[in-house]
Amino acid sequence: MKWPSWLAPKSRRRPAAAEPSLTACPTCGREMELIEKTTMTGSDRRTCRCEHCGEEHIINFGPALWQILSDAREAEEKEEKQNG
Prior knowledge:
single chain, alpha+beta, three-stranded antiparallel beta sheet, 1 helix, 3 strands, 23% helix
């Protein structure tokens, strides 16, 4: 028996658009494995390797947490000196 088309449930919601992963390989789109993380330059840089392609990519995740906290502390100290 075939059900009438008006009886079939239809989802009115659209699925949320998936945000692109920062650790997805730019070549093939698969997830990469973390090899190394460095914050010595003041930015959070991570080296990842794609097992499928065999390529390594360096991803910059922005300023390192220690750099943000250091800058905030310096600004606070400067403000305290100005205000007395």
